[in-house]
Structure to design on (455 residues):
């Protein structure tokens, strides 16, 4: 009898452990996995210029906050940057710029000018670069706008797209210049500068500003929750910089409707748009891919003070999918903007069929042929509200530069809907596991009582 009492408690525990193991395996297997590897862009990559990346690190006082896996934001960023530096390819030209690293919060006058080169863009001495990062301590203010201008100077001019990676936990507290204005300014210069932003603080206002910066230059925004996520994302961006475009855009002519619009592959394109005109282009986006597009219209003649540029994505039926970040912001001086859109799980046969009516199924821009039936056709519409001052010629149209990229869809920033969905899955699995375990435990208890009574 004693042997029975000693042996049986171990068996329910083993059953419970096995059941929970299976439950968590089911839970882990049921959650969607997100791939974020970049898709090679079409067009001719630069054969003479090495990939260039300038990382901007926020070293303002708030980076001392301890809220990422029990560690301070600055220590998480430093560790991630060390790992990124260790993994740098030998041909990469990498640099680091800081903001808020020198002057204390008590000195706002100098603190709002506080951005400097920590490690110059070029071939990387990994020991020297990591040593420089290790010396940083959270100190001052957050002049993001000035840091973006400085990073553009760090990268210089060249024949290929250059990338800025901004790691920060707050919005610019030193405006002017407003960082969104600076991002638009850089995009309008046509210098092929892409800014990717990574936020360490989960604040809606900060997120809005970082999304604005990224969208204006055709970059991406990532909401960072763990050190591993930060490391992985920066490494992906550095790797993505290896896929670059030639500085000379391909000349194209947009249409007045989607059906007759040119089909674009990833690349940089030049066109001209008349005052208050709409020009349409098409892009094929496969399931699991993300369309990233940015546009800048350069006012190369005297124009009226109030103007704006709108970039809009719609399906072939004309239903809007998404529009540029500045739409509805109330701004009247937008010269450049950008958008991101992820394809649905499966392309819309109706939309694709509609788009194909009267249109060619292949495009030859950048010397590349694209099968339009391989994905959903997205119509990109560029429109402007520019008006010329009296006596200004309307022909030719204003210079327009459009950048198009199609990459593997990146995970969306964590939000209530995503968290709720995964929470329900876990709740259902744990509820089921608890019910089954309770039934088993009750049956075992009754069986043991029966055995005890018999003995």
């Amino acid at each position: 009898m004693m042997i029975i009492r000693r042996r049986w408690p171990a068996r329910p525990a083993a059953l419970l452990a096995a059941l929970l193991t299976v439950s968590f395996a089911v839970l882990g297997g049921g959650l969607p996995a997100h791939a974020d590897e970049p898709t090679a862009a079409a067009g001719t990559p630069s054969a003479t210029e090495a990939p260039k990346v300038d990382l901007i690190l926020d070293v303002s006082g708030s980076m001392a906050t301890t809220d990422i896996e029990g560690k301070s934001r600055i220590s998480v960023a430093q560790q991630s940057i060390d790992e990124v530096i260790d993994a740098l390819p030998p041909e990469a030209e990498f640099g680091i710029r800081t903001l808020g690293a020198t002057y204390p919060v008590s000195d706002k006058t100098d603190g709002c000018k506080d951005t400097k080169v920590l490690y110059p863009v070029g071939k990387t001495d990994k020991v020297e670069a990591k040593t420089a990062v290790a010396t940083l301590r959270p100190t001052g203010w957050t002049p993001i706008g000035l840091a973006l201008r400085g990073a553009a100077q760090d990268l210089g001019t060249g024949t290929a797209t250059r990338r800025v990676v901004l790691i920060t936990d707050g919005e610019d507290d030193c405006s002017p210049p407003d960082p969104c204005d600076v991002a638009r300014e850089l995009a309008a210069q046509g210098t092929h500068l892409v800014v990717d932003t990574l936020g360490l603080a989960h604040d809606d206002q900060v997120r809005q500003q970082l999304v604005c910066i990224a969208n204006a230059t055709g970059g991406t925004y990532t909401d960072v929750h763990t050190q591993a996520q930060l490391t992985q994302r920066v490494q992906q961006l550095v790797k993505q910089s290896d896929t670059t475009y030639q500085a000379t855009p391909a000349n194209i002519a947009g249409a007045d409707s989607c059906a007759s619009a040119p089909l674009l592959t990833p690349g940089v394109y030049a066109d001209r748009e008349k005052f208050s005109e709409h020009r349409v282009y098409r892009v094929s986006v496969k399931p699991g891919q993300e369309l990233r597009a940015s546009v800048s219209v350069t006012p190369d003649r005297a124009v009226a003070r109030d103007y704006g540029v709108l970039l809009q994505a719609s399906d072939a039926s004309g239903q809007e999918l998404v529009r540029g970040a500045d739409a509805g912001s109330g701004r009247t001086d937008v010269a450049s903007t950008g958008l991101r859109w992820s394809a649905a799980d499966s392309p819309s046969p109706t939309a694709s069929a509609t788009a194909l009516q009267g249109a060619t199924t292949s495009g030859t821009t950048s010397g590349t042929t694209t099968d339009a039936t391989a994905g959903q056709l997205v119509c990109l519409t560029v429109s402007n509200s520019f008006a010329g001052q009296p006596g200004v010629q309307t022909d030719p149209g204003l210079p327009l530069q459009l950048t198009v990229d199609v990459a593997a869809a990146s995970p969306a920033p964590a939000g209530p809907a995503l968290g709720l969905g995964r929470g329900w899955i876990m709740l259902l699995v744990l509820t089921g596991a608890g019910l089954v375990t309770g039934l088993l435990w009750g049956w075992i208890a009754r069986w043991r009582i029966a055995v005890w009574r018999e003995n």
Summary: The domain at 52-240 is CATH 3.40.50.410 (Rossmann fold). The first strand starts at residue 52 and ends at 58. The first helix runs from residue 2 to 7. The two ends are 7 Å apart (CA to CA).
